[in-house]
Write a structure and sequence with these properties.
Radius of gyration: 16 Å
Structural class: alpha+beta
Helix content: 25-40%
Number of strands: 8
Strand content: 25-35%
Order of helices and strands: HHEEEEEHEEHE
Largest sheet: 8 strands, mixed
Distance between the termini: 21 Å
Number of domains: 1
Shape: globular
Number of helices: 4
Oligomer: single chain
Length: about 180
């Protein structure tokens, strides 16, 4: 059984539901819209499985070397980052993947704790520090036109078995294809 098999299964189910439902229903018009509908589907999966998870949409992530990244979605349990997702929404074009792969690589190579900061929060709370689970799922989820996108082998080799890709391939006048 692969590491984080439940989370991997939940990601795939939420992706299919998002593509077959809101995307096919013409309700998604931007990457932010994709994030919203995917998060709703993912939270439904978490509820069905009765697992406690926290979703952070576009958090500021501070790495120990003071590097900042802004991943599209971070999934945490009570103590650890267990998933990071980079979305790409280019339903009429080919995706550009470099920045997304760099962010996922950064999480893959981070053996230490990261801080999820919310600089705009004005209540009483400290930024929460999480360790990145050694088996955290690092996911690229993309809606794009054409054929299956090629991802850079160098980036994928650094991420290894932690990588999950969720593709939705669009073609004019045709149903979305989920390979």
């Amino acid at each position: 059984m692969s590491a984080r098999s439940l989370l991997r299964s939940q990601l795939r189910s939420a992706w299919r539901r998002t593509m077959r439902g809101p995307y096919s229903g013409r309700q998604i018009n931007s990457e932010r819209g994709l994030q919203v509908h995917f998060c709703i589907s993912l939270l439904t999966e978490f509820t069905k499985s009765a697992v406690g998870r926290h979703l952070f949409v576009e958090p500021v992530v501070l790495f120990p070397d003071a590097t900042k990244r802004y991943p599209d979605l971070v999934i945490c349990n009570a103590r650890r980052v267990i998933g990071v997702i980079e979305f790409k929404y280019t339903p009429r074009a080919r995706p550009i993947v470099g920045k997304d792969m760099n962010t996922l690589h950064r999480f893959a190579s981070s053996g230490k704790s990261v801080v999820l900061a919310n600089d705009r929060f004005r209540g009483i709370a400290e930024a929460k520090q999480y360790s990145v689970a050694p088996d955290a799922v690092l996911c690229w989820a993309a809606v794009y036109a054409g054929n299956l996108a090629e991802l850079p082998a160098r980036a994928l080799s650094s991420i290894g078995s932690r990588f999950v890709r969720l593709d939705a391939i669009t073609r004019d006048g045709d149903e979305v294809e989920i390979p």
